[in-house]
Design goal:
Layout lengths: L9 E4 L5 E4 L7 E4 L2 H22 L21
Antiparallel strand pairs: 1-2, 2-3
Length: about 80
């Protein structure tokens, strides 16, 4: 049975170029792409591989159901 899962990703523009992508709900799921489109494609592939490895190990697949998103702003001396 195939179902669709949604995961939030964060793209960080790197000084030397390209974008690092992290998937917060999947610990250690990090990838990179030269462009935004490539980074998103790489993230999709990384998530699919991550989920497949969890399935093979019989582990639970994390979802983002019930996840609340909030941006916290703090003041810091610079």
């Amino acid at each position: 049975m195939m179902r669709s899962l949604n995961y939030q990703i964060f793209l960080r523009k790197e000084r030397e170029g390209g974008y690092t992508v992290i998937v917060p709900s999947l610990p250690g799921c990090v990838t990179y792409g030269e462009t935004v489109d490539e980074a998103i494609a790489m993230a999709r592939e990384a998530v699919e591989i991550y989920i497949e490895e969890l399935r093979e190990k019989g582990e639970e697949i994390p979802t983002e159901e019930g996840l609340l998103e909030y941006t916290l702003t703090v003041k810091a001396h610079t």
